Amino acid sequence: xxxxxxxxxxxxxxxxxxxxxRWWLAPLRxxxxxxxxxxxxxxxxxxxxxxxxxxxxxxxxxxxxCVTSSCVEGSSHLGTWFGAFPKVIPFSIITFVVLAGxxxxxxxxxxxxxxxxxxxxxxxxxxxxxxxxxxxxxxxLVALNLHRYFFYGALVFGLLNVYDGxxxxxxxxxxxxxxxxxxIIWINLVMLWMYTLSxxxxxxxxxxxLKNFSKHPLRYRYWTFVSKLxxxxxxxxxxxxxxVILTDAYIMSVSAGWFSDLRFLN
Length: 266
Description:
The chain crosses the membrane at residues 23-43, 88-109, 141-163, 175-195, 236-259. Keywords: Membrane, Transmembrane, Transmembrane helix. It is a single chain. By secondary structure, the chain is mainly alpha-helical. The protein has one domain (22-265). The protein has helices at residues 25-47, 93-104, 107-116, 147-167, 180-197, 200-207, 217-229, 233-256, and strands at residues 52-53, 58-59, 178-179, 263-265. The strands form 2 sheets. The chain has a two-stranded antiparallel sheet. Strands 3-4 form a two-stranded antiparallel sheet. Strand 1 and strand 2 form a beta hairpin. The radius of gyration is 22 Å and the shape is globular. It starts with 24 loop residues before the first helix and ends with a strand. The mean pLDDT is 91.
């Protein structure tokens, strides 16, 4: 039996929609951004190079942590947990799985993806092309319910990124130093943490299932802080995409020798 706008009893009209505004602009813009990030990240993780600047200890977040013996010397801050990887396997496969899983199952990105990539629906009063609706009960969409577990992984990688950020205060002579790369890395860190802490799963984990906030003042304080960030979660999600790309592109450029890092101190 037909469903949606084709269901029996619904008015049958030839027009796809009666909207006269540019309703397609928002999903087109978001879809282009998401598509560009997916392509860029995929290309970069399979490059397996230009991810480390030894002179200043810059490590791109797409390759952090680099824990295989295939990593270039100096980039394995936490040691080498694994042997050499075949060339067809990215060094950052673990990072990619966890962080892509976190963003891919994120409530905001799910909404953005449904509207921009799957047109389900692309805008209000615009029917979607799918003839039936199955929700998120079947594979692979049922895996989206793993979001809160990916959140724990994102917290771990967020702490690793902070450690990488402290290593970026490194000068040529081995002392303290600050360069443009250092500032870019820390701007990205701030946006990544704003995105992570404003997450709906974070809000639930911090203050969910509490029947009485007065008995849990510390958790209530954390819940209040996250609740203030939560309305801007989508904004942080999109900004952090650009800061990740900027950080990786800058470190790649310096590592490849395309230009030198602008130094402010040492």
